[in-house]
Amino acid sequence: MTMPTSRARVDVGMPAPDFVLAESGGRRISLSDLRGEPVILAFYPPEWDPSRADQLAHFNWLVRQVPGVNAELLGISTDGMWCQLAFADESVRVPVLADLDPYGAVAERYDVRGEQAVFVVDAEGTIAWRHAGPAGVAPSSSELLAALEALATPTPESQAARFAPRGDDWVPLPPCAQPRDETDPLFMPSRRDFVTTALAAAFALAAAPLAAKAEPLAARLAEPALADVPAANVILRINGRPVSMSIEPRVTLLDALREYAGLTGTKKGCDHGQCGACTVHVNGRRQLSCLTLAVMHQGDEITTVEGLATGDTLHPMQAAFITHDGFQCGYCTSGQIMSATALLKEPCGPTDADVKECMSGNICRCGAYPGIVAAIQDVRSTARG
Q: Considering only CA atoms, which of 73, 64, 112 is closest in space to residue 94?
């Protein structure tokens, strides 16, 4: 799992320098307190915030290149320093220290001051993988894949040493029965080691310059297999007018609206179809724009929140949200309004409970639900005369 590097002081195979993470109740919590599981250290400036969709796409692209690996990542969520990775068969929690100052004392100790860097520290506290370089410089995909293949490819001897057969499959032996010495020829990193390194590599790939965040995934990976995908010339009918764009075929409708059509009223919240902030209308019906591809909607009538008003006259639902204070921070409001206006044409019962059920796909973290329900019921009662 050795990767080329120009630095020698803090490198792969060396003990990770310890440092204090936090102090609580007079007790210091250090990196060494997380021993027993791999940890990701990420040194990036505060303004760096690649979307989790980027990390998800990079992770899945990387692992698909490694033969024999079945690790399709379905979603990423965070809870403090813990990053939870959801797979079809399990969830893996990995500590990620992503708020490390690239100009701070810890960066100085890791010899990456002024650079963007990612480290994987294994369960024993040894640096297992690293990438460091100037801002915006991503590691070579071939280097990443070489590291992942080393982690993912067991020899017959290592499989026999760390796994036991069960039917047509292999199951891991208890930790006490597995070799942990990396110099032992029977040593094979665990699935958690592989997942952690792949996630760290996805972070590194996502660390493109902020100005390039809207570039297609293929351009940022710069891999022939992806770069050869031709752009698609698409004409979308948005808010009653045609909008022509040349996009990579895997661009979602959400990204096409925001990054290509310049209609930023539609918000990117979870990017996984769970929060409803990206709701638009397609042929009069509500649609989560983060879960559909733009190229699938040529000829469809697409309406965003910018298309609801008539000139300076607000749509009745927009006016009702203002009247009933149906928002606080406002981030989810466009999706709430788009779902609410679609609800007017859907079979929905008369009670507040019916409205809550019909709006359950839209989440408001501020908790403005009473005002949202009141606004919807106001418009419905007016429509009924």
A: 73
User: Which residue ranges make up each domain of the chain?
Assistant: 20-224, 230-307, 312-385
| 186 touches 161 (CB < 8 A) | yes
Let me know: does 163 contact 78? Beta carbons within 8 Å: no
Q: What distance in Å separates the CA atoms of residue 130 and residue 148, rounded to the nearest whole number?
A: 12
In DSSP terms, 218 is beta-bridged to none
Q: Is the dihedral of CA 199, 202, 208, 212 positive or negative?
A: negative
pLDDT of residue 136: 58
Q: Are 195 and 85 in contact (CB under 8 A)?
A: yes
- Mapped onto helix, strand or coil, the DSSP state of residue 49 is coil
pLDDT tens digits along 296-351: 998 899 999 999 999 889 999 999 999 999 999 999 999 999 999 999 999 999 99
User: What type of residue sits at position 378?
Assistant: D
pTM for the whole thing? 0.48
Q: Which fold is adopted by the domain 312-385?
A: DNA polymerase; domain 1 (1.10.150)
> What is the spatial distance between Cα 111 and Cα 376, in angstroms, rounded to a whole number?
57
> Are β-strands 39-43 and 116-121 bridged in parallel, bridged antiparallel, or unpaired?
antiparallel
Would 230-307 and 312-385 be classified into the same CATH topology?
no
The DSSP 8-state label assigned to residue 257 in this structure reads I
By C-alpha distance, which of 139, 146, 269, 149 is closest to 202?
139
pLDDT per residue as tens digits for the range 369-379? 999 999 999 99
Domain 230-307 matching CATH 3.10.20.30: the answer reads yes
Hey, which residues does 281 pair with through a beta bridge?
286, 303
